[in-house]
């Protein structure tokens, strides 16, 4: 039987985890960089032979062009409705959708799962997938923002920051990044 591997991607964790600078006590501890989403998709295909890369993202109408570009790279997108808080910040936490799809809706369709997030909120999902022998890898944007809850799953972890040279968006690839 052919092995089928799906990647479940927490888009906000991936985007903020690679792209944002992190400070501790006013000292820069991680310098953010721009991830090339097309290169990342190819990386997932080459390294893990994924059948599907499912990106969970909060829907914002003004981002339609971004969504089209991501789909053109090969990502499937599952949208979460968003709300705007009193400060004007848009919120669209996708954790529940990612867990629902990976642990219930699609669990019988794949042999191995890759979860892209450094978020400790997925601890129960990692345990469940490990019990089912379906956890292939946990891809974490950077070690500085990875939850300490993930220590138990050390053997599954891969840090995207270690692939920065390969996955970084370069301006000469104009129009290729999302």
UniProtKB/TrEMBL annotation:
Lineage top rank: taxon: Bacteria
Domain NYN as annotated: residue spans: 8-152
One term of GO molecular function: RNA nuclease activity
Pfam families documented for this protein: NYN (PF01936)
This protein's name: NYN domain-containing protein
């Amino acid at each position: 039987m052919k092995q089928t591997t799906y990647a479940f991607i927490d888009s906000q964790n991936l985007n903020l985890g690679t792209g944002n600078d992190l400070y501790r006590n006013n000292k820069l501890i991680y310098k953010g960089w721009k991830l090339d989403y097309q290169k990342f998709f190819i990386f997932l295909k080459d390294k893990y032979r994924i059948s599907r890369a499912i990106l969970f993202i909060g829907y914002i109408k003004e981002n339609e062009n971004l969504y089209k570009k991501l789909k053109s790279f090969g990502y499937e997108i599952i949208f979460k409705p968003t709300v705007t808080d009193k400060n004007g910040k848009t919120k669209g936490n996708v954790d529940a959708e990612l867990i629902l799809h990976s642990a219930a809706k699609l669990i019988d369709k794949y042999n191995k799962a890759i979860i892209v997030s450094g978020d400790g909120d997925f601890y129960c999902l990692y345990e469940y997938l490990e019990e089912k022998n379906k956890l292939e890898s946990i891809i974490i944007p950077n070690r500085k923002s990875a939850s300490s809850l993930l220590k138990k799953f050390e053997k599954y972890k891969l840090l995207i920051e270690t692939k920065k040279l390969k996955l970084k968006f370069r301006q000469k690839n104009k129009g290729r990044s999302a």
